[in-house]
Amino acid sequence: MNGRVLRIELRRSVAPWAGVVSLCVALAFLYLVSGPWWKGSAPWTSQWTSLALWTRFLLAVLWPLALALGALQGLRDHRSRMTELLTSTPRPARQRAVTTAGATVITLTAAFTLVVLLGAVQVIGNTEYTHLGWLPISLVAVLALVAGALLGMGIGRSLPSPLTPPALAVAAFVFVNLLRMSTESAVPTAVSGPTGVALLSPAVDETLNVFLTLSAPVHLGQTVWLLGMAVTGFALLAAATPRARLLALAPVLAGAVIALLVLPADPRRVYVVDEAAAAQVCDGPVCVAAVHQERLPDLADPGKKALRHLRDVLGGEAPTTVRESTAQRGIFDAPERSRTAVLFDFGDSVIADAEGEQLTRALLGQGMAPVCFARSARESGTVGELAAQGVVAGWVLGDLRPFEGAMHPQSAQLATAGPVFKELKALPWSEQVARVKAAHTAAVSCSGDPLTILDGGTAR
């Protein structure tokens, strides 16, 4: 590649604008929109895998954009009305294509790398869990942008019409949004069509779980598919005859066939649990997943204090550990529960955002009356369960206080819990203990409404 010609391309072609537009669009999405990438237990700057997956999520917009900008670049010879003149020069079309494609590849790669580096700087300050398993996810993203731009250039040169760039953008947008894996269920599944076909889309769905990552066959299959796409795009860009353009389609077709043989057909093999991230790191009876190990010091003392209170109230039936749940579940599925452990997850902001005595109260409530309806950035839980946790925690600690961080207002919590708390405290001591233990038993098995039991009702 001639360096002087490349510099001219970088100054005077669409290539720099491709990088600038991609960078601005990505940053606008990330910083001007209060999207799900800032919420829940897996924000884009919290962990390395979350960073890689959320930046891959951006390909739902960036990949169609790369195709359209590539097509615009491919129209250049036609717009200049010099096609015949360029064809008559002794310089091979392949060499001119290398320079044109190289400039766009450089700017798109630089733009996406800058976005990842910006997130990486923040991830470094937010987690102590480091690994390199996220790199393949981001490398495939870069390859997808490059392949999309090359294919756009090739199509733009083969179909020199002003309608080609917008048509490609719309087609690509439909492609990546119809063919994708939904992460809302416990086992991510294809939104439409077979799993292997859905994985041909370079974009991924929202990242809802910090313990899941893409499997190696997904990386391999998508790499083969995108390499075939890139080769076809370059061949179309350099092709000068109809026969050469027809032959140029062979790599992308071969890549698709091989990719479909490599990509998992079973949805359970698309996303896999990062066992190292989910491994438990403990301070005595209080444990968190390795991916959240930096939060253990703040959790340990409130967790141990909550366990002591539980032992005083429940005796031999009390949980003996506080542990972060790593079980996989879908949106609105019941969370994991245990008779021997206080299970929580950092997607529940009642616990995730609490500190000190408020955290002790939240863990005590979760240990006494574990929720059957999950709380997360997308799930509100019920005000009844929140009130029941407030009543039992207040009964142990001596005062009723609402929980912070819940979707339900504190006034609603107090309005629901207050009458039950007063009635419970007015009962003989033995009856108070009996109701609290009955509420605990019902909550652990999800066999009744603990607030109703505390109010004198019975389990279903």
Key terms:
460 residues, mainly alpha, four-stranded mixed β-sheet, two-stranded antiparallel sheet, 61% helix, elongated
Description:
This protein is mainly alpha-helical and 460 residues long. It has helices at residues 3-12, 15-32, 48-57, 59-74, 76-80, 83-88, 93-126, 135-158, 164-178, 195-198, 216-238, 242-248, 250-262, 275-278, 296-314, 349-352, 356-368, 383-397, 410-426, 429-445, 450-454, and strands spanning 181-182, 189-190, 212-214, 271-273, 280-283, 286-289, 321-324, 341-344. Helices cover 61% and strands 6% of the residues. Helix 2 (15-32) runs parallel beside helix 7, helix 4 packs parallel to helix 8 (135-158) and helix 8 runs parallel beside helix 11 (216-238). The model has no long low-confidence stretch (mean pLDDT 90).
